[in-house]
Amino acid sequence: MATQLAPVGERKAFKALQTHFQQIGGKHLRELFAEDPARGDRFTAETGGIFLDYSKNRITDETLKLLLQLAEESGLREKIEAMFRGDKINITENRAVLHVALRAPKGESIVLDGEDVVPAVHEVLDKMSAFADRVRSGEWKGHTGKKIRNVVNIGIGGSDLGPVMAYEALKFYSQRDLTFRFVSNVDGTDFAEAVEDLDAEETLFLVASKTFTTLETMTNAHTARDWALAKLGDEKAVAKHFVAISTNAKEVAKFGIDTANMFGFWDWVGGRYSMDSAIGLSTMLAIGPDNFRAMLAGFHEMDVHFRTTPFEKNLPVLLGLLTIWYTDFFDAQTVAILPYEQYLKRFPAYLQQLTMESNGKHVTLDGELVDTLTGPIYWGEPGTNGQHSFYQLIHQGTRLIPCDFIGFYKTLNPLGRHHDMLMANVFAQAEALAFGKTAEQVKAEGTPDWLVPHRVFEGNRPSNTILADKLTPAVLGKLVALYEHAVLTQGAIWNIDSFDQWGVELGKVLAQKIIGELESETEPKLAHDTSTTNLIQRYRKNK
Ligand SMILES: O=P(O)(O)OC[C@H]1O[C@](O)(CO)[C@@H](O)[C@@H]1O
Fold first, then answer.
1. Gene3D superfamilies given for it (predicted)?
2. CA 235 to CA 239: how far, in whole Å?
């Protein structure tokens, strides 16, 4: 199915950007601000209380104009509409991409294959809410009649990273007499440590898996069942202590969970786009149905903004285009996500799957090799901790690392001067990265000549600063949707499938084969390369 899109490098706007890059790529942010002092007022955009200052990027009005032209020429508008309309834009899996339907308000309609999907979304939400209310109030009892005090989410990838991130991000709003744990790794230590101090009689397991066939999750779920039944004794206990979140009712029933205790979603929700589906049940149990719905409303607000706002004022589009600029013209390899909000400590890890599983692709939708770099590496840590760890390299290393700073006007935990100090660091870091410190400035401070080069800050390191009032469920929804749509923006330009993940398959298949070889009672016939064969043999000998 040809997309009719020329390779990125052959598009008119891209070629114009290449010429433009020759002219301004080497310009320093000091010069850009000197020539255009008002850029700090102009290169900003805001929606629903999310403010983006992108003036400290190595761009001019012309850069922006050409990037916006590239978006138009690449069919971004049509791509956005196609997603919202429910077209099967996940071409390699022949699926619609409708995470936006998960937060569509009641009464809105999104028709897929002749059926409006929004009522089903609200049915599941209502079922989740009723269940959450029962658990939170203590009405839902375990097999021996005790209240549930512990919730353990078992899932991996999108069935873990979103729930963990949202739980941590919204802990301030959580019901504190409920303990939450998240088990993802097939490493038994993850499960063992998670339940070490828990009482099975008071523990509810949420088995979260879109497919309900994922090796790690099913292994952990079976171990959890054995652990629970060892204490509770009776198969019937499963009904009170296990619920499933999945699209696969057949496998859920096979596992022994009553499908009445299953919260469904659909194949048009990608794993990494699912934290606002039933996969978010742990989030709802923690913060309650009203807060969860407030989060969905936040997501929806950003969806409407993305769909309706002209590109030059559209936050996800701007964020996406800036990443294209650094990736494809400056050859930047990474993007650093630097939240100055302790509650967002898992946000960078969450964004890693969202961005890298989505845009880590090497062929276009037409199956041709892409002719530019695609998805960069996303990484990061909360400020100010990162400052005392890896910022040295961002400031003075040899790589260009565009940074996203995320900060809030208000803290949820006001403590003396802490918040002003925290936020002073956001502004100082972005300023230092952009403007640096020249040799003249260093010398003028009386630094001996030999030390001057070491103390020079080249500057010209670009960053975005994203500010919001305070971290609420709605604001979290807006932030996640902002990055989701920035991912689509990038994918549209690279003309790749941002919604499949074939790259995770090969390792999974090989591991299945090797498991048998590691566990075989008799010496297995190994048909690997010499390195893999030796490693397997060494493991077998020493395990
Ligand atoms: O929810 P499931 O089906 O267990 O899948 C978990 C994760 O595995 C992947 O398919 C691949 O790692 C992710 O896309 C997904 O989020």
1. 1.10.1390.10, Glucose-6-phosphate isomerase like protein, domain 1
2. 8
pTM, to two decimals: 0.98
* CB atoms near residue 395 (< 10 Å): 18
Q: Is the CB of 215 under 6 A from ligand 1?
A: no
Phi, psi of 82 (to 5 degrees): -60, -40
Laid out side by side, the sheet with 203-208 consists of 179-183, 150-154, 203-208, 242-246, 262-264
Phi and psi (nearest 5°) for 217? -70, -40
Burial 396-426 (b: 16+ CB within 10 A, else e): eeeebbbbbbbbbeebbeeeeeebeebbebb
- Does position 1 have pLDDT exceeding 70, yes or no? no
Does ipTM come in above 0.95? Answer: yes
Residue 498 CA to residue 28 CA, distance in Å, equals 33
Q: How distant is the alpha carbon of residue 266 from its chain centre?
A: 19
Q: Which atom of ligand 1 is nearest to the CA of 156?
A: 6
339-369 per-position pLDDT tens digit: 999 999 999 999 999 999 999 999 999 999 9
Is position 388 annotated as part of the catalytic site?
yes
Ligand 1 close to Cβ of residue 158 (< 6 A): yes
Q: What is the three-class DSSP state of 152?
A: strand
Helices marked H in 363-472: 391-396, 418-435, 439-444, 452-455
Q: Give the model's confidence band at 3: pLDDT under 50 very low, under 70 low, under 90 confident, else very high.
A: confident
Q: What is the DSSP string of 66-117?
A: HHHHHHHHTTHHHHHHHHHHT---BGGGTB---GGGGGPPTT---EETTEE-
Torsions phi, psi of 447, nearest 5? Answer: -70, 130
Angle at 488 between CA 56 and CA 494, to 5 degrees: 85
- In angstroms, what is the span from residue 72 Cα to ligand 1's centroid? 32
What contacts 407, CB < 8 A, 6 or more positions away? 339, 340, 341, 422, 423, 426, 465, 466, 467
Instruction: Point out the catalytic residue in the list 106, 508, 513, 519.
Output: 508
Instruction: With H, G, I as helix, E, B as strand and everything else as coil, classify residue 399.
Output: coil
Structural contact between residues 281 and 124, judged by C-beta atoms closer than 8 angstroms: no
